[in-house]
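Methods — Computational structure assignment.
A single polypeptide chain was analysed. Its primary sequence is given first, followed by the predicted tertiary structure written as structure tokens.
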Amino acid sequence: MKTLVIRNADNSARVEFKVDIIGSNQNFTVMQVSDLDDAEVVFGINFRELATNLQAFTSFCTANNLILDNIDIDPAVGSTEVVAEGVAMDITDSDPLAGGTDGAPYSETLTVVGGSGDKTWEVSVGSLPSQLTLNASTGAIAGTPDTVENPTFTVKATDALGQAVTQQLSIDIT
């Protein structure tokens, strides 16, 4: 038996319901169907229309900017272990990033909110201005640009569960 918690990012709205997981394919049965009705009232979304597969349910919650916590209940010890699944992510930096000057040191750190665990960063489309690099662990863009340019590029942040979010950005080097 598990308890699933659907909540928004700031935890101001949440609904819990108990489920029975059936087999390794993670199909589940909601123990009290009225719990799904409660979730519909709180979030204005009809959860009854969903497939009863945990992965599909998680994807649905993520698409609706909701967080689904999967809480394992161990009746033998009365403890719970919370494993966040499908936590919505967002890159909070807006385009354009702070500009830089040809020949002067540049440093800007990208920020992602949400997600699970450590994040990795990469430039997935295009390229950074000449001589700038993106630190894959920290999201820091740094270096000393050596060309006047204004490239557009897309960064991608991936969390420990493999969820990814992208953002198109640019840096004006004058």
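Note: Confidence is low (pLDDT under 50) at residues 72-85.
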